[in-house]
Amino acid sequence: MIGGAAVKARSILGCSAIIAVLALGGCLPAARAAAGDDAATTAPDTVAKDGAAPGDSTAGDTTSGADTLADTGTEETTADVAVGPAKGCASDAACANLLVGACKVAKCNLKTGLCMIADAPAASACDGGPCQDNAKCAAGKCAGTAKTCDDGNACTDDSCDAIAGCGHANNHAKCDDGNKCSDPDQCQDGACAGAPKNCDDKDPCTDDTCNATTAECNHLPTATQNIPCDNPGVCMENGVCQGNACKGTKVTCDDSNPCTLDACNLTDGKCYHFNQQGKSCKLGKCNGTCEAGVCDDKAFCEDNNICTADSCDPSVGDCMHKPAAGPCDDGDPCTQNDACDAQLNACIGGAKLSCDDANPCTNDSCVYKQGCKNAPNTAPCNDGDACTSSDGCASGICGGKAVSCDDGNACTDDACVPATGCSHKAKSDGTTCGAGKCSAGVCTGTP
């Protein structure tokens, strides 16, 4: 096609078998009509192709009338436009159905009666495509200024596609968002951004901000005052924000114990409670004394009776002495297994203590509050030794005089065994006994 429409025509005004189209001041050769092409009916063309437009089908034209256009490869669907001396155009309106390109117009040549294609008026608006702005016609061509597509965003790569138009693809270039509190910046998802500077001073009493120009952190007093804070200082509690500082009240460390001295250690901030041994104290209306960190009122109400539990009624300050069961000591060493009598509120002595030392040479007795006494005596006794006689006690020990076992026989060895007494063992025969000799324990040969 030429200019959107080529004209099939017969020889008219000296242009035999050509298309009379005014383009660049001349005529272009006409497309050769297919042999057997119908001229005025809807019957099928007799050939599939012609020389001007390969691929033409053999289907019939959809309307009657002489063909005016070269075959284009597809069937015509609009009414044919009749041209020529007999049916030429009389006005530009007759050429309105011709398809022309950008910056071209179809006009009627009144001298020839033919439609021709001419350049559109200069500077007339035209469609330069999505990549041109302010497109205008000039010498039959549409031209304009190239569209920049610049979206002013450093984080997009700008381009123009002849079909889609401007495109803005995200990039990951380094950038500057103008805020020094977020350096270094880099493009992300089409926007310039950086990690914000952390100005948190962990102080709830300050509002922490960053100066976008200098990147310096600012810590101004929080706008809301007297809000709770948890660091009022060592040995301080109940902190609240005052100004840009956390302030509180002193820790008392009071454990409500009158027997301890309470204090807070300025080094570790912990409370300590020191016992005040022997300090006077009160339990309600009862007087007491501090013992191992506890106020003990027993001393105040002590009745020195082991068989009573002594205490003070704190509501009135009166002493109470309740019976106490259990073992006790009546103070007499001559009794044993003493126990408290709940009815008498007294310690009652148990069984008498035996002071028998199994020594016949002592007189055994128990003296009240003194205990056992074992006094030596001089009573007769038996020391159990057969080698003594006339046994008797002396200084608490039983003893006697040694027994003589001499039998006057020179032929016996005399001895005393404590368990059995005296023994007389015969000497060996032949033992000299005076002038004689011993034989069977008898001295023989004596003159």
Task: Outline the secondary-structure elements.
Elements: E1 18-23, E2 26-29, E3 104-109, E4 114-119, E5 132-138, E6 141-146, E7 156-161, E8 165-170, E9 174-175, E10 185-188, E11 191-194, E12 206-210, E13 217-221, E14 236-242, E15 245-250, E16 260-264, E17 271-275, E18 280-283, E19 286-291, E20 294-296, H1 298-301, E21 308-313, E22 318-323, E23 339-341, E24 346-348, E25 362-367, E26 371-376, E27 388-394, E28 397-402, E29 412-417, E30 421-426, E31 432-433, E32 436-439, E33 442-444
Antiparallel strand pairs: 1-2, 3-4, 5-6, 7-8, 9-10, 10-11, 12-13, 14-15, 16-17, 18-19, 19-20, 21-22, 23-24, 25-26, 27-28, 29-30, 31-32, 32-33
Using brief descriptors, characterize the structure shown.
447 residues; three-stranded antiparallel beta sheet; 1 helix; disordered N terminus
Description:
The structure is a single chain. This protein has about 450 residues and is mainly beta. Among the domains are: about 1-145, no CATH class; about 300-355, no CATH class; about 365-405, no CATH class; about 410-445, no CATH class. It has one helix and 33 strands. The strands form 15 sheets. It has a three-stranded antiparallel sheet, with no helix packed on it. A three-stranded antiparallel sheet has the order 18-19-20. Strands 31-32-33 form a three-stranded antiparallel sheet, with no helix packed on it. The radius of gyration is 73 Å and the shape is elongated. The termini are far apart.
